[in-house]
Design goal:
- The chain has one domain.
- Helix content is about 80%, strand content about 0%.
- The protein has helices at about 1-25, 35-50, 55-90, 90-100, 110-145, 155-190, 195-215, 220, 235-240.
- The chain is elongated, with a radius of gyration of 23 Å.
- The termini are far apart.
């Protein structure tokens, strides 16, 4: 019975860490300083600069690359889902293999199937997020195509179109980020297939790595509002 309580606690820790991290990143003042939040500011900058040029083919090509990347991740999530279902189908074979290892890692069939079902749910969640993000990027591309011409850039209609497009663009990026986050946490979830103690460690490792990328990475530093525009880096700062 004690072993089951360790499993329950480990899964609870995994879920709470995922929820707390997501809520902090997306719905707190602290999260407004994240890399994703800083990139959202540049989404609006991009949309506004569309109004300054009539030739917008390059912008549409960039949108196409964003759509292709999202489609790739959506397809990958389906492959991952197929692998999770294959694990669920091969319960007896997996338990037999684990039972032959020097360390006893073989769970009960019911527990193994529960682990596989959890992995399936994560893959399904990721697919829906990537699929919805792909559709939102399609909508953004349509709004790019409907952007007012340069001659109308100072009209209220143009401002409303910029705000509408920026909000939809931000929503697309947010759902894409949620899908990627599901992938990252799925890697941590795999630790449960070894041991609930490994799940504690792998979940903490995922949170630390993803937090560092959002708040302490070189990319985050490069997007800082006070970064020196002209090349000079630390030398330029010291010179001042």
């Amino acid at each position: 019975m004690s072993r089951h309580w360790v499993d329950i606690t480990a899964v609870g820790f995994f879920i709470i860490e995922w929820l707390v991290y997501a809520m902090t990143l997306e719905h707190s003042a602290y999260g407004r300083n994240s890399l994703s939040a800083r990139m959202n500011d540049y989404r609006e900058v991009w949309v506004r600069r569309l109004l300054d040029r009539d030739a917008r083919m390059v912008d549409m090509q960039i949108m196409a690359s964003l759509q292709n990347g999202t489609a790739f991740f959506a397809s990958t999530s389906l492959f991952a889902l197929g692998g999770a279902l294959a694990l669920l189908h091969a319960t007896n074979d997996a338990i037999t293999i684990l039972g032959k290892l020097p360390i006893d890692l073989s769970p009960s069939p019911a527990l193994w199937e529960l682990k596989c079902v959890g992995l399936v749910l994560i893959c399904v969640y990721a697919f829906f997020k990537f699929a919805w993000a792909y559709r939102l990027f399609n909508y953004v591309a349509i709004l790019f195509g409907g952007m007012p011409p340069v001659s109308q850039r100072d009209t209220p209609e143009a401002e409303a179109h910029v705000i509408r497009t920026s909000r939809l663009f931000e929503s697309a990026g947010r759902h894409f980020n949620r899908g990627q986050r599901a992938f990252f946490f799925a890697l941590g979830y795999l630790g449960w297939f070894i041991s609930p103690w490994v799940l504690f460690v792998s979940t903490a490792a995922v949170v630390i790595v993803t937090w560092r990328r959002q708040f302490a990475s070189s990319a985050w530093a490069a997007m800082a509002p006070d970064v020196v525009a002209a090349g000079g880096g630390e030398e330029t700062k010291r010179g001042h």
